[in-house]
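re: ur question from earlier - yeah i can do the single chain one, its not a big deal. heres the input i used so u can compare w yours
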Amino acid sequence: MRIFKIIFLSVISISTAFGQGIDFNASSFKDAIKRAKAENKLIFVDAYTTWCGPCKFMAKNIFTDKNVGDYYNEAFVNVKIDMEKGEGPQLAKAWKITGYPTLIFIDKKGELIHRSMGSRPAEDFLDLGRAANDPERQITTMTKRFEAGERDAEFLWKYTDAMTSAGLKGFEKVALLYMDTQTDWSTDKNMNFLFDYAEATIDSKLFKYTLEHREEFEALVGKEKFEQKLNYAADIDRSKNGIARDDKEGLKLHYEKYYDSKIASDKAMVTYFKQLMYTLDPVEQERFKAEIQLFLAGTPDLGWSFYNSVAWQIYEISNDRELLKKAAEWTNLSIKDTKNSFNTDTQAHIQYKLGNNKEARRYALSSIELAKEESSDYSATEALLSKISK
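and the output i got, formated as tokens:
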């Protein structure tokens, strides 16, 4: 199944064949503590869940990297812990884990000394390990320095970055303290800092500054990147303010705080359809089929992911040939905007359902090639290709 979100779908077990990759040789946290004491090492914990896409990305692409394995196997006792099974839930509570993967570093006494959240490239992951091994860069050390009153600009910058990476609350308070040390907020260095560490909400002083200087920030970081953060802030604030996804007028008024009236109207409808899209209720599914056709008849500029997700949902719930043909048209709009393994896979499935095996095969092969470039899982596309061949 292909949905509009860009997530890492690959599922693969950790392998240390040929001496490459991290050797997760501790069987439990208790075992890791025992080994750490015996070997005089720190502990690295991959705190993961089975459903987490970025966790699977790290498992497939980063933990198997030879350079990563060489460093982590030498520096740490390594253990993987499913946060939803066995000892996982208790540890997740103790470590205050709020997202996955969370990459935890523990000393041999069992105390947390460093942490980070989310997937990252191999070199960044190596640097994370080096930071965990450097008392001056450990998040716990930096927190103690901050609580002791250290307010040097360079330290505040590094501490803001460390807090953000660790997924800790209160990072904007530190970011504001850094900005208070700066006489000129408009330098490229400070604008990059502002953009990276402004909390994505309209209630944030730093985020308001980015909105007030939108053109300058778009020129610096790129329009697409700025839009991504703006979209995220608008959605976070919608949820925080309790605006229901089926309240079309309330959604429009909310999005007008961030966009012009036309874009706000489209954003409101996209949010409305997202809650309607995946309903299992037959009556609601029929409402979705009818209303989405009317909305997309105006061909609003909504980006590849929304067109793709709508088309896939029609593929899932409808056998109506005319509606499937419209879904194929919407997928073409998605591909025209940004061609990738997700929308080409969607088109392959739709064409197969329509009986156009030649077209289905062409899109399936294209999707597999793109998936290889993206390091995405293409097993579902291969399964479809097998059906087409038969």
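DSSP finds 20 helices and four strands in the chain. not sure if urs matches, ping me
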